[in-house]
Amino acid sequence: xxxxxxxxxxxxxxxxxxxxxxxxxxxxxxxxxxxxxxxxxxxxxxxxxxxxxxxxxxxxxxxxxxxxxxxxxxxxxxxxxxxxxxxxxxxxxxxxxxxxxxxxxxxxxxxxxxxxxxxxxxxxxxxxxxxxxxxxxxxxxxxxxxxxxxxxxxxxxxxxxxxxxxxxxxxxxxxxxxxxxxxxxxxxxxxxxxxxxxxxxxxxxxxxxxxxxxxxxxxxxxxxxxxxxxxxxxxxxxxxxxxxxxxxxxxxxxxxxxxxxxxxxxxxxxxxxxxxxxxxxxxxxxxxxxxxxxxxxxxxxxxxxxxxxxxxxxxxxxxxxxxxxxxxxxxxxxxxxxxxxxxxxxxxxxxxxxxxxxxxxxxxxxxxxxxxxxxxxxxxxxxxxxxxxxxxxxxxxxxxxxxxxxxxxxxxxxxxxxxxxxxxxxxxxxxxxxx
Length: 435
Hints:
This protein is α+β, with helices and mostly antiparallel strands. It contains 13 helices and 18 strands. The chain starts with 15 loop residues before the first strand and ends with a helix.
């Protein structure tokens, strides 16, 4: 299929199996899915295949802190267990996966490039050439290119051309969004997967994946931001005119709320996590001073737990949540895409389930906020339909959109896919043929 999603006819698209792995700070989740070509393409625009999940495994994450692998052995163990569970459920073995990347100080940059057409019609080769020229500029820094995506083309002085193939002009230009990350955390994540005898097919930035899963067509088209609040990191992505135009990540997540509570209430992390889930809220309620919550202090073997007013807890939660949202608001305004987002913000990720969070986000971001759950995937068990699984589901959707990416950048970016040793995996071959 050609580089523009959805343009191949159904006969050129094949069914296949796809495996994705979401390595988070709180959980590692592996999904195996069957992709079948869409007959009518009406389901969701830009989706060329129907996705049916046939295997899923998730584990408490180990050895990962704020999205960065900090202990290879423990991370490998958690990855192995979740992939094992998914393989057993799907009844097949997996050799390569699509993985998401949160760490590495993700940075979005815009580049433009122009090539000379000399008055003839633009074809695939010209598009490859202009995309290659745009991607080359991003490689000057000591960083790794994760995505290089065309945002829009121009022919001579006309901007906003969506698909220049077959059009005539003298100069073909492209505006590109290039997302880069630090090389070391990417290498270490890849290493922990390779040690489980698996190879990395492609790395996808978490904000991109979450946005693909949680945003609906109109939001993608009109412009919206997707904020994915995980355990150790919060990522933000901006989509406009159906394209991913900006991505960012900060190393603050739900775990920081738990940590603040454990410190402030002098209780264990497990107890603080339980309190956060059961009673935590980012909204002060009228009865908070009267409501008492019982807490088991650290190192106190006495049977009598402490009783504290819920308002004490709400204050701790609120301080951290407000700080996180203010940081995101500033990042969004600085990105220059504040206007593209308009009033639409979608919150997703495990930590977005905190009570009162949408209200707090509305107040601080000054925009409409809804909680987004992963859309457009069949066969998910009830437990995996929540916001915590958006990134994993987004990775299943990604290959259908990957046809938008400039494939030349793969070669340029030097993202050496270890473990492929020259022989293409069945999976990679299928991905290349089908999309």
